[in-house]
Design a protein that fits this description.
With 194 residues, the protein is of the alpha/beta class. It is built from 5 helices and 7 strands. It has helices spanning 37-45, 86-103, 122-133, 150-164, 181-190; strands spanning 6-12, 26-31, 62-67, 71-75, 107-115, 138-143, 169-172. The chain has a 7-stranded mixed beta sheet, with helices on both faces. The longest helix has 18 residues, at 86-103. The chain is globular and about 45 Å long.
Length: 194
């Protein structure tokens, strides 16, 4: 798959903000703060579209990127330990919940980024169960895999495969080695990204 054009067409800050036209579906990227979501989007598009930072919580809105004038990459705010106010976290939660309730019909696939160095955290588990309830297809992207020794890596891949591998795709990924990128492109093609 080749990404020829990328355009930020809409930024949603409030649950009553208007969503863009539907196009040919949406590929959603979601994960805990500081899991590497912005870096992955930049690698996939070959452009510096999403702000990266050592400080968690950089993405504070829902960003719709039009890809090849055909479909969207949707970047959701990170969740988890970001040091933001309770009010700001509540706002993020509200716009994310509103997004899924209003746009589920147009979502092709959700890429859930999880830090592959750790077992499933409660926030991640809640999100995955919610996606199941909404009957949305998702793939788990295990980030930061280059930081693990081979034995630890094999153990963590086994762990996530045992939890979700029977029904969902598990993708070991590294921003450093680019492992997993081709698999992500492949899934986008399979699920209708053109």
């Amino acid at each position: 798959m080749k990404i020829k054009s990328v355009e930020l067409v809409k930024t949603i800050y409030k649950s009553n903000d208007k969503y863009p036209e539907s196009l040919n579906g949406e590929f959603v990227f979601v994960g805990r703060s500081n899991v590497g979501k912005s870096t992955l989007l930049n690698i996939l598009t070959g452009r510096n579209i999403a702000k990266t930072s050592k400080k968690p919580g950089k993405t504070a809105s829902i960003n719709f990127y039009k890809i090849n004038n055909s479909f969207y990459f949707v970047d959701l705010p990170g969740y988890g330990y970001a040091k933001v106010s309770v009010e700001e976290r509540a706002r993020w939660q509200k716009i994310i919940e509103n997004y899924f309730s209003k746009r589920a019909w147009n979502i092709k696939l959700v890429f859930v980024l999880i830090d592959g160095r750790h077992e499933l955290q409660k926030n991640d588990e809640i999100l995955l169960e919610w996606l199941k309830e909404l009957e949305l297809d998702f793939a788990i992207v295990m980030t930061k895999m280059d930081k693990l020794k081979n034995s630890e890596r094999a153990k963590m891949i086994r762990y996530y495969n045992d939890l979700y591998g029977e029904n969902y795709t598990i993708i070991p990924y590294s921003a450093i080695t680019r492992e997993g990128i081709e698999k992500i492109y492949e899934l986008i093609e399979i699920f209708g990204g053109v």
